[in-house]
Write a structure and sequence with these properties.
The complex is a heterodimer of chains A (643) and B (103). Chain A is mainly alpha-helical and 643 residues long. In chain A, 77% of the residues lie in helices and 3% in strands. A two-stranded antiparallel ribbon of chain A has the order 1-2. In chain A, a hairpin with a 2-residue loop joins strand 1 and strand 2. Chain B has 103 residues and is mainly α. Chain B starts with a helix and ends in a 13-residue tail after the last helix. The chains are: A mainly alpha (643), B mainly alpha (103). Chains A and B meet through helix 24 of A and helix 1 of B.
């Protein structure tokens, strides 16, 4: 079981590595490997069924602090992981067609992102959670800046990275404080200690606010919203997966994960409520003014995330988690359709688009279905989750409920305005020569649109088993009618404004100044950060200088040692040389003495041979003559001897 | 008419001297072999002469002489065979040409 659990984050990671090794040309293959990695993850998640396996290990222990690293499946993380894997699977499928001309680096980064996101969702230790949190930030940076030759993409990537980093500082401090308090990075253990009431109230509030700072950065809440619209400079699948469905929802997921902590700190929860509420209103108002289709959707995402935070602040985690899941489906669908429009026409500007319903009927249907789901029209998914948020709001007070109905109205306005401006027919200089996208793009869009239509209705039957949070009191029927009316009114107003005034802001130009104001406000802390970084740099330089001095000292010491050693070396060499020459002397003496003696012998024998050689004349008569002489002498000798 | 022993000895000595001369002085292998044959026969004549005039009852000298004749025949056959082979190899029987062992 735990091995299968490990497959969930490791399969996309392996896919990323394989894609990197394939090289940058194999785009199509890389796209399908990307799909395959996520598909394996999703299958593993489904194969795990209702079990709650865990795979964890102690990373290190130091001074009474235990760093664990592990992943575990529980009710919340299973649901969110399945949502992440399903949306990622469909978006990756879409990317195969949509990003056919990109280098395979894109798919490696996408796989890496999915691996990091699944790790984030499944992590049961704060240190692993933080590592995955930073890894998704890195993937987001890489993918926003994918078209790194374009100045806008570079700027947007840098802005997104730095602004989310401001929030991440809070998360870092938060989990370090939690580690100090509990001595462990295990999330369950930490929440258990929080639940037992062993931590003082102010510390709890501080912890909750620090964690929430991380969530604010990631989920683009005020005042760190400005990076999300700029992040639309990235490719559309990136916007659909990272900047609408998964990574930006990680902030909401973080609050959900630590909800017992927030529940124990009411002050922090109030902060969550008001930041969520203002972000939702602010972003919705800006969304009614934007002229770029994807930026409308980005502001809409910020607004919807604000609604989730709003629900969390109203102590309605069930509503927030439910809305997170449904929002992931319909917002991704909207982005996929926007990508198809962009691909077909080459522009995303509302004042240059129009009348595309006839040219791109499937894209138009997909977009409109997801837009109605976003607006909360019965029986599409948005209706069911917004219903739950309204439930939480009404339980707290009618004022909150009316505020939320206003938000639903604004959502209807901006999405209807965008849909009408892009797809409805009105007088226009020339109709762009657009055509429907390819098979994989179309298939992915339709699949996700079906999910966006059905997910809310289907999930509403399994809320208890999908999310481990309690239900609120049942909503009065009049509220349901009211929110539906507000949604329809918003849609109608947005459509009418777009038809009457074209792509002009739905409520006049005043609200468009909001975004620029926000930009300048959020740039101030960034500039402060830059200043601090420069100050740090000079301190670092001083450190650097001292370290360098030490290094120089060490270097000269080692040089002296080197010289001493070379002296030893010379001595040893001299000894060796003298031994060698002695040996040579002995060798020479031996060889000369023996060889001279032997030469003398040889010369002697040679000379003797030369003497004797003369006797061998080769003349037969001399031999016979000698024979006779010898015989004669022998006879004479015998004669004289025996006489 | 009795022929003295000395006459036989002189004839045998002349034969021997002629044999020695031809063995030493002749250049042709065939003539050397003939000289050797003269040497053998000179010795045989000596043996027969000494048997007849000194110990006529002892037959060992006759047997000795017959062995010498036999050896002479064998020596002739072997010698001529060597000559034939030499001739085949070198197309000559001049003994002065055979000087491979000269130092």
């Amino acid at each position: 079981m735990s091995a299968l659990l490990l497959v969930v984050p490791l399969a996309p990671l392996a896919a990323a590595l394989v894609i990197l090794f394939l090289g940058r040309k194999a785009t199509r293959l890389a796209g399908w490997i990307n799909v395959g990695g996520v598909a394996i993850s999703l299958l593993a998640l489904i194969g795990l069924g209702g079990g709650e396996p865990r795979a964890e290990t102690v990373w290190m222990q130091s001074g009474g602090l235990t760093f664990t690293a592990g992943i575990a499946l529980d009710t919340l993380s299973r649901t969110i992981a399945i949502v992440v894997a399903a949306v990622a699977l469909i978006v990756n499928w879409y990317s195969v067609g949509h990003m056919a001309k990109a280098t395979s680096r894109f798919f490696a980064a996408m796989s890496f992102f999915v691996a990091a996101m699944l790790t984030l969702v499944l992590a049961n230790s704060t240190v692993l959670l933080f590592a995955a949190w930073e890894a998704v930030g890195l993937a987001s940076f890489l993918l926003i800046g994918f078209h790194y030759r374009e100045d806008a993409a570079r700027q947007a990537a840098r802005k997104a990275f730095l602004l989310t980093r401001l929030g991440d500082v809070g998360l870092l401090l938060g989990w370090l404080l939690a580690l100090r308090l509990t001595g462990s990075t295990d999330i369950e253990q930490f929440l258990g200690i929080v639940g037992a009431g062993k931590i003082a109230g102010t510390t709890l509030s501080l912890l909750a606010l620090l964690f929430f700072a991380g969530a604010v950065g990631k989920s683009a809440q005020l005042p760190l919203t400005a990076w999300l619209p700029d992040a639309m400079a990235g490719p559309t699948p990136v916007s659909a997966l990272i900047h609408s469905a998964t990574m930006v929802a990680a902030g909401v997921y973080l609050v959900l994960r630590f909800f017992p902590l927030f529940a124990a700190a009411p002050g922090a929860l109030t902060v969550v409520l008001w930041i969520g509420a203002t972000t939702a209103l602010f972003a919705a108002l800006v969304a009614t003014t934007e002229r770029d289709l994807k930026r409308v959707l980005a502001w809409s995402t910020a607004s919807q995330l604000g609604e989730m935070m709003f629900a969390l602040g109203l102590a309605g985690p069930l509503a927030a988690a439910f809305h997170l899941a449904t929002h992931a489906t319909f917002k991704s669908t909207l982005f996929l359709a926007a990508g198809a429009v962009d691909h077909a026409t080459g522009t995303r500007r509302l004042d240059q688009l129009g009348g595309l319903a006839r040219r791109l009927p499937i894209t138009a249907c997909v977009f409109v279905a997801a837009a109605l789901a976003l607006a909360g029209v019965w029986p599409l998914s948005g209706f069911w989750s917004e219903d739950k948020i309204l439930e939480a709001a009404a339980a707290r007070g009618s004022g909150f409920a009316f505020y939320f109905i206003g938000l639903v109205f604004l959502a209807g306005v901006y999405v209807s305005r965008a849909a009408t401006a892009v797809f409805a027919k009105w007088p226009r200089g020339k109709e762009p020569d657009a055509h429907e996208p390819g098979a994989s793009v179309k298939g992915a869009m339709i699949t996700l649109a079906v999910l966006a239509i059905c997910a809310g209705f289907a999930l509403s039957f399994f809320l208890e088993s999908a999310f481990p949070f309690p239900h609120g009191p049942e909503l009065a029927f009049i509220w349901k009618v009211g929110v539906l009316c507000a949604a329809l009114a918003g849609l109608a107003f947005g459509g009418w404004r777009a038809r009457a005034a074209g792509p002009a802001p739905a409520f006049g130009l005043n609200f468009s100044h909001l975004a620029t104001t926000l930009d300048s406000v959020t740039l101030a802390p960034a500039k402060l950060g830059m200043f601090a970084a420069h100050a740090l740099a000079s301190i670092e330089q001083a450190f650097d200088q001292s370290v360098r001095t030490v290094a120089h000292g060490t270097l000269s010491l080692s040089r002296a040692g080197d010289r001493f050693e070379s002296g030893l070396d010379h001595l040893a060499r001299a000894t060796a040389d003298s031994t060698m020459s002695a040996a040579r002397g002995v060798g020479a003496a031996e060889s000369h003495g023996f060889s001279d003696l032997l030469d003398a012998f040889a010369r002697l024998f040679g000379q003797a041979g030369g003497q004797v050689r003369g006797w061998e004349t080769g003349k037969l008569y001399l031999y016979t003559f000698g024979l006779f002489i010898w015989a004669l002498l022998a006879a004479l000798a015998g004669f004289f001897y025996w006489r | 008419m009795a022929i003295p022993l000395t006459a036989y000895l002189i004839v045998a000595a002349i034969l021997f001297a002629i044999g020695v001369y031809s063995v030493i002085a002749q250049r042709t292998a065939v003539m050397i072999l003939m000289g050797i044959e003269l040497l053998l026969n000179a010795i045989g004549l000596n043996l027969i002469a000494f048997w007849r005039y000194v110990r006529p009852d002892d037959y060992s000298a006759q047997i000795f002489t017959i062995i010498i004749v036999t050896i002479g025949a064998v020596e002739m056959g072997v010698g001529l065979a060597i000559m034939m082979l030499l001739y085949r190899n070198r197309q000559t029987v001049q003994v002065d040409k055979f000087e491979d062992l000269k130092g």
